[in-house]
Design a protein that fits this description.
Blueprint (H helix, E strand, L loop, with lengths): L2 E8 L8 H17 L2 E9 L10 H12 L4 E4 L2 H4 L3 H14 L2 E4 L9 H34 L22 H15 L4 H10 L12 H9 L6 E4 L14 E5 L8 H11 L6 H6 L10 E3 L7 E2 L7 E3 L13 E3 H16 L2 H10 L4 H22 L5 H28 L1 H5 L3 H10 L2 H9 L2 E6 L11 E5 L2
Helix pairs in contact: 4-5, 7-8, 9-14, 13-14
Length: 471
């Protein structure tokens, strides 16, 4: 008597009740009984798409059991329940050859042991793949059409700042978003903001504490500025890009202004900033990475000795660092602070900072316009209205202009901490003392490129430090 494995799968189960899988199982059990076989086990993959390439735990378990010799027949409702991938179908055919597996379907007889049966299975599999691909294209177009109309996207957890209808603003959460936006635009790190939120027990809609990656995605979202964002992607992409294309004004109200949103998006998508590293290690030393060894040029890190905080050139084999320069962290921080405040006390420098950090609304509009141009070019090429050569030629100057404007927008965001910081010497000193390390570091990073530290002398010598100011 054959030991039959019943495999059931449904691609989408919005209600989560598993009724589709249950109906398949009932029909398959009836077929097993008619065949006079024995049910070895049932392998259900509920709400799992074969087309998307998502892992199918029950399917993998079934393959393992076949290899182990505990199953010698597969029963399913239709061959497209097994897979919608011709490649995987060939794996099933290979199994039938090697293990003598028989396949039975509720909707028709398929004998994988004969050339005709294999042909029918391949034809059905190809037809199912064709249908799945067309369905994916229709869904992609529907999603874009909905985005261009500014409609609410459904599914998943409610967005932070908005009620379950995704339109009504929750005042308390909106204030948290505005606060986080102000702090990040002022140069504070995501890690620092998240730590503060944890102390104040400010949580996500899921009831969890904020992570830098979660806060970054929230602040980079166009949704909080009342705009609809569309992020087209392949079904096989598992990670959603940080930024999508802004395609319309949304039907819900804004929490922050579009200008602030564009500055946040440029800042948080800046490739020069390693947010994964920031998430793993918060800054405790003000000048780590900004100080450079005067002997070898390597970045200096914070490292205590006998409980005394110091900046040192790390002696790491293979890194090119010499390990020959160190300086007392406390004295260095005070000296660099004083040099910084003295430079910022210059009226000419203050005026230049205010001018360079002016209104970037037009710059943000230029970025959005070029993003739309690239999208139009791609659609024209896909519709065969232009050749690939024409597409590449037209795209090159747009890409160059877009990258330059994005860099300029990100640069404005990096210098923005100075706008609210500069003032009289006493005002700046008071503001500095009220800042945390992350906020102080933003002021330093907006003012200097690097600080070179010469080898130590017998006594504290401020002349050891050479500051490369941002022009």
């Amino acid at each position: 008597m054959r030991r039959a494995a019943i495999y059931c799968r449904i691609s989408q189960d919005r209600a989560g009740a598993g009724l589709g899988v249950a109906r398949q199982e009932a029909d398959c059990r009836a077929l097993v009984e008619r065949r006079g076989w024995q049910v070895a086990d049932v392998y259900p993959d509920n709400d799992v798409s074969a087309y998307s390439g998502s892992p199918r735990p029950a399917w993998q378990r079934l393959l393992s059991d076949i290899e182990a010799g505990t199953v010698d027949a597969i029963v399913c409702w239709h061959v497209d329940r097994l897979t919608r991938s011709p490649r995987e179908l060939e794996d099933v055919i290979d199994l039938a050859d090697r293990r003598g597996i028989e396949l039975a379907t509720v909707t028709g007889e398929i004998d994988l042991g004969t050339p005709t049966g294999r042909l029918i299975a391949r034809m059905l599999g190809a037809a199912a793949r064709h249908e799945a691909e067309h369905k994916a294209e229709r869904q992609k177009r529907q999603r874009r059409q909905s985005a261009e109309a500014g409609n609410v996207s459904g599914g998943g957890m409610r967005p932070y700042g908005y009620a379950d209808d995704r339109i009504t603003i929750i005042g308390e959460e909106a204030e948290v978003i505005r606060e986080a936006a102000r702090r990040v635009l002022a140069g504070e790190s995501l890690t620092s903001v998240c730590r503060d939120f944890e102390k104040r027990d400010i949580r996500t809609p899921a009831g969890r504490h904020w992570l830098p990656t979660t806060l970054r995605r929230l602040l980079a979202s166009a949704r909080i500025s009342g705009r609809r964002e569309h992020t087209p992607r392949s079904s096989f992409q598992t990670t959603r890009p940080l930024l999508g294309e802004i395609v319309a004004d949304a039907v819900w109200p804004a929490i922050i202004t579009p200008v602030d949103s564009d500055r946040l998006r440029a800042l948080l998508n800046d490739p020069a900033r390693d947010y994964r590293r920031q998430a793993a290690t918060g800054r405790t030393y003000l000048l780590s990475g900004i100080l450079r060894c005067g002997k070898c040029g390597h970045r200096m890190n914070g490292r205590p000795r006998s409980g005394v905080p110091r900046y040192v050139c790390p002696n790491v084999p293979g890194s090119g660092s010499c390990g020959g320069v160190a300086t007392n962290a406390h004295h260095t921080n005070i000296h660099i602070r004083d040099m910084l405040l003295t430079a910022l006390d210059s009226p000419a420098l203050a005026q230049r900072i205010r001018h360079d950090s002016g209104d970037d609304d037009n710059l943000a509009e230029l970025v959005r316009a070029d993003e739309e141009l690239l999208e139009e070019l791609a659609e024209a090429w896909a519709a065969r209205e232009i050749t690939r050569k024409e597409w590449m030629a037209a795209r090159a100057p747009i890409d160059l202009r877009l990258n330059n404007n994005r860099a300029a927008l990100a640069s404005l965001s990096r210098t923005s901490p100075l706008i609210t910081f500069i003032g009289t010497m006493q005002q700046m000193l008071t503001r500095w003392d009220a800042m945390n390390t992350s906020q102080q570091r933003a002021i330093v990073a907006a003012t200097v490129h690097r600080i070179t530290v010469a080898p130590a002398k017998p006594r504290w010598d401020p002349d050891r430090f050479t500051i490369d100011w941002i022009a």
